[in-house]
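Open question from group meeting: does this chain pack into something compact, or does most of it stay loose? Before anyone orders reagents, we agreed to write out a predicted structure and look at it together. Recording both the input and the output here so the notebook holds the full record.
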Amino acid sequence: MKAELVIKNARVVDHDGEFFGGVAVTNGRIVLTGTNDALPDATRTIDAEGRVLMPGVIDPHCHLGVNYPYDEDMRSETAAAASGGVTTVLLYIRNKSGPYVPFYKERRAVGEANSLIDFGFHFGIQREEHIHEIPDIVRETGVRSFKCYFGYEPDNPIGIVPATDGWVYATMRHLKQIPGGVISVHCENTGIATWLKDEMKATGRQDLGVYSESRPAFCEEETIKRMIFLAERTGCPLHLVHTSVGQGPVLAAEARGRGIDVTVETCPHYLTRTCYDPDLDMKAKISPPLRDRGELEGLWRGVLDGSVYSLGTDHVPFVPKKGENIWTEVPGVVSFPWELSLLLHFGVHQRGLSLSRLVQLNSYHPARRFGLWPRKGSLQAGADADLVLVDLDEERTVHHTGHGHCIYEGWTLKGWPVLTVSRGDVVHENGAVVERYGRGRCVIRPD
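Structure tokens returned:
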């Protein structure tokens, strides 16, 4: 047997361990994972020279087509993702104007015509009709993950329709009946945050910290507890997205001890940045907000002890932020090219995070939660050949030239992806993206 691609002499790391050897790839899939002497000849053989080979990163949380045209984002941002070792992205998308089935068909078609890597969708509940349509949506699109948003006032700058507890409860009752169904919730107490926002606006402050103080950590903790209560009542799997508070993983772990299916996602920015960092201004506004050092350390405890389930970037490329008014500034930053390097630098090198644990957070767990396993997030034979080769010792300085706001400019990080393979195709190598737009496939499809 002659393979199309072999990567050998690698420190091969999966979610449950590691060995020295490599993988063989044919027709876009892994056909063999083993020691060097077990690998076949290949049309192309890459010598990893002892570097780390892992499953490609699955980023289960991004927003594309929000400010820039959707087709443009699907080119520029999936290329940025590939440069960071990301091989699959899942988009949280919203459609306030109508039903999701035709919306899915249009977004899937445009995505597959433009994306460099594979992608899929979660749908935001933005109308009461969306809840009633869930069985039809699942049947016609394969999407089984739905999101409800708290923490947004009706006049919020990005036009999100905030959820009610009734919406959440009704959505959970539907999803409980659907195999693989899961509800994602943005947890912040909208009423308290609105009240405190008016108080904070009266101070005249425009620093980043005032935004965080207008929606303190207990707003998120309260809503996490409320969502866990509803998940327990309904039996619906619950995913807590972009968790910014240290108590989030603790509350979820306690709930899992009672048999509740609840998982926690956090983001690289909550692990690396605080709202009081002196070099950050209102353009670093994110929702939920950056917190203080205590919350950051609490999240790291969850990453290291296993109570944080997965990572996502919440990557959203807004047009250049204005920096004029903290209260009307749009919330969001971009992270695709650096999410892996940030975790290697601050997690693996600085805190002793194991590489297998990193694979769990970045690949294995997102694939399991959102129905992509074992096709994605795996190095076993038969899985898609989505791979990233990492140089743990390479040091490089962040320099952002693309869309969106970067909060890591000028940072020197240790540990970088040097090769990205998507379904057997090399899409990033030697610092350059292979521009084969339109090769990406939608991984969320009707049965």
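Observations to bring back to the group:
The mean pLDDT is 97.
The chain has 13 helices and 17 strands.
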